[in-house]
Amino acid sequence: MNILREKEHSKREKGIPKGKSGVNGCKTAFYKIVLFHVMTGIMLLTGCKETEDPKTRIGEQIELIPEFAVTEETFSEEETMEMVSQRKIPPEGFELVFDSEEWGLFFEEPGMQPRGNAAAEDLAWYDAYYVGNDSEKVIYLTFDCGYENGNTELILDALKKHNVSATFFVVGHFLETDPDLVKKMVQEGHVVGNHTYHHLNMDEISDIETFQKELCDVEDLFFEITGTELSKYYRPPQGKCNVENLKMAQELGYSTIFWSLAHVDWDPDHQPDHAEAIDRLTARIHSGAIVLLHNTSKTNGEILDELLTKWEEMGYTFKPLSDIVYSENT
Question: How far apart are the C-alpha atoms of 28 and 236, rounded to whole Å?
Fold first, then answer.
């Protein structure tokens, strides 16, 4: 049996300007979780239902372009976040064990889901996921955005052409330097998630205050730019994570999102050629795949239209990450 191990080694951002304090944002995140549980209890007791449209939150709102609104959703963002906020309790004596400190994959047969260095059912106790259900030919497309070098527009154009909604995991530097691209992501119906403000090795952070600040600073700046709340999806930089990190992210209302398919695309000076990239990404695609691509890849920008076409010809459709989170919590 030929087993291949696949890792991401995305480079750590250097010299990124420090963001704003984030203390108020972190406190707000904590109080939101507490308030949610209080209000949920009141509504259950009184029979009240939430009637506020999430698009009417305070702040200048980004107008969604109707033809690119996500149509796969059969539930609201509030319903999805409610599922996440209900903390799961692992069985007594349960212990999650990672095979290594970096996220890794083991591929055995073409078209089959790979094994991660932690089991999907074990990760789910902490609202962490690397793959979806294997019963449907569905792809969950995600991009990590550390900085902009001219390829994100091409990526957005290809997604728009195929009417595909993706999730973009952004860091503070990307938000600071390219707010217009962030607005465009929201306008065209995409989801924006949290890749931390400074792209640190989060497995080295053990205190909740520092961990929280890395996430909350992204939330606060995203809200300033778009007038909308950041979606509660968190991707650890370089896939480096430990159980305590998963617990802290869960406490903050986040789902941690790893991946089940990627390729060596993160180094702009050593890009894979088109044929190599397409062959790899079509040979290893599988049902329920969470695909990780980098927006900094020239190859990704140039092949994405063709790649989406090939996946569609293979019978795959595309859904948002909320499809996994919702199904795992019902």
Answer: 22
User: What's the distance, Cα to Cα, between the start and end of the chain in Å?
Assistant: 36
Report the predicted TM-score, pTM, of the whole model to 2 decimal places. 0.78
**Domains of the chain by residue range:** 19-328
Angle, CA 77 vertex, CA 227 and CA 202 arms, to 5°: 75
Give the Cα separation of 319 and 330 in Å (integer): 17
Of 127, 286, 294, 323, which residue is the catalytic one?
294
Known active-site residue 207: no
Angle CA 210–148–299, to nearest 5: 120
Query: Could you confirm whether 144 is annotated as catalytic?
Result: yes
Cβ-Cβ contacts under 8 Å for 149 (sequence gap 6 or more): 268, 296, 298
Q: What is the pLDDT of residues 153-203, one digit of tens each?
A: 999 999 999 999 999 999 999 999 999 999 999 999 999 999 999 999 999
Q: Which of 144, 178, 217, 323 is catalytic?
A: 144
What the block records as the tokens of 226 is 């778009």
The pLDDT tens digits for 89-118 are: 888 888 898 998 889 999 989 999 999 999
Q: What is the pLDDT of residues 16-57, one digit of tens each?
A: 333 333 434 455 555 555 454 444 444 444 444 443 443 333
CA gap 36, 127 in Å, rounded: 18
CATH number of the domain at 19-328, out of 3.40.630.190, 3.90.198.10, 3.20.20.370, 3.40.1350.10?
A: 3.20.20.370
CA distance 193 to 222: 10
